[in-house]
């Protein structure tokens, strides 16, 4: 059971800190299972958090009062078990191999206490600092972001992409980058899950409800296109074929893969970062950019600001040691990768709350229609 977290195990992952009691503060089960755990120590000493010069936490406290525990333990998703297990393992590998180097270069992440993989079952477990205890808030699709905060998030994505862009000086040849090179192409883990969700039966079960919204009448003038399963399948296959071809040429970097606004946090100082690194893979950075921008901004704000945000991304990418990308190429790539927003139309109720799905699909599908993505 996910709720069975032993004090002795917590002591072990916290370098022998004398944990005497474990209390489950909260538990949730979505596409992964997570716990917030309250800890008590034998000597009840005060927890001290190291801080950096800007006042943010430089390392997680050696004796945290709370930790965040995450893994793949949702029994409702057993049918997708083999596919989803790979994503839990990948997140643990990310926090072990790559997160330390990214943290050192300005990436805002939840700092790990532990990241491990069971090589027999393929299960991956991460134990992270409790960001809420640091005063962080978490993204909700009902709460659109201001353009300035989205720009700061775009700059965070540019760090990830530039520091993992093969062949660039910013991407040194060490264990972290060797792990990156072993990642599959864009959608390497998300792709087979999507291929399952887009089969006729699961598609028919959720797509109309997710697209139609609370009253069932949303996008009524476009349902002939948006509910055309064969057209959607063909569009994704064309995008993946293009992305696979680019894998060895222009856009080879590590991508988060699931950058919608729910997978974000914002510090008490208003600075954003990204959570949930389960779908990290290798491919086109504009996937992350398009998915994030189109989910975080209100529709009218996206229409006003998206070109400026794409320009901000390519400027930050080059400034962080990545390549120079010409505007025409960047704008085309951004528009083409908006298609990935359709994934939320296929989300099962056990993956995200229905109100989240409705809020996100409204933004994603409007962007897809605005840019005529299905014909690119």
UniProtKB/TrEMBL annotation:
InterPro entries (UniProt xref): CHK_kinase-like, EcKL, Kinase-like_dom_sf
Membrane-spanning segments: none
Taxonomy, superkingdom: Eukaryota
Protein name: CHK kinase-like domain-containing protein
Native species: Apiospora kogelbergensis
Annotated CHK kinase-like domain residues: 126-323
Pfam families associated with the record: EcKL
């Amino acid at each position: 059971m996910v709720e069975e977290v032993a004090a002795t195990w917590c002591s072990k992952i916290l370098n022998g800190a004398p944990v005497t009691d474990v209390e489950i503060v909260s538990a949730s089960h979505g596409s992964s299972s997570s716990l917030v755990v309250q800890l008590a120590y034998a000597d009840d000493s005060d927890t001290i958090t190291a801080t950096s010069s800007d006042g943010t936490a430089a390392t997680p406290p050696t004796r945290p009062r709370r930790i965040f525990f995450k893994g793949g333990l949702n029994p409702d998703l057993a049918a997708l078990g083999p596919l989803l297990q790979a994503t839990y393992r990948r997140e643990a590998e990310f926090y072990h191999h790559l997160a330390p180097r990214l943290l050192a270069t300005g990436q805002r992440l939840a700092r790990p206490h532990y990241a491990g993989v069971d090589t027999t079952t393929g299960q991956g477990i991460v134990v992270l600092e409790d960001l809420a205890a640091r005063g962080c808030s978490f993204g909700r699709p009902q709460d659109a972001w201001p353009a300035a905060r989205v720009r700061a998030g775009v700059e965070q994505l540019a760090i990830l992409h530039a520091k993992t862009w093969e062949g660039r000086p910013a991407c040194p040849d060490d264990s972290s980058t060797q792990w990156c090179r072993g990642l599959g192409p864009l959608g390497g883990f998300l792709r087979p899950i999507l291929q399952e969700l887009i089969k006729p039966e699961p598609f028919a079960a959720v797509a109309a409800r997710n697209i139609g919204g609370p009253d069932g009448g949303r996008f009524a003038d476009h349902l002939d296109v948006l509910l055309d399963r064969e057209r959607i399948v063909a569009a994704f296959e064309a995008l993946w074929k293009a992305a696979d071809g680019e894998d060895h040429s222009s856009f080879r970097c590590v991508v988060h893969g699931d950058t919608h606004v729910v997978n974000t946090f914002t510090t008490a100082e208003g600075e954003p970062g990204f959570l949930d690194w389960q779908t990290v893979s290798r491919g086109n950075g504009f996937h992350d950019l398009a998915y994030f921008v189109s989910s975080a901004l209100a529709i009218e704000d996206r229409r006003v600001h998206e070109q400026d945000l794409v320009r901000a991304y390519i400027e930050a990418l080059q400034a962080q040691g990545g390549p120079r990308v010409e505007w025409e190429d960047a704008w085309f790539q951004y528009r083409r990768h908006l298609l990935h927003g359709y994934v939320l139309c296929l989300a099962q109720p056990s993956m995200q709350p229905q109100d989240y799905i409705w809020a996100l699909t409204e933004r994603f599908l409007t962007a897809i229609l605005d840019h005529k993505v299905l014909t690119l």
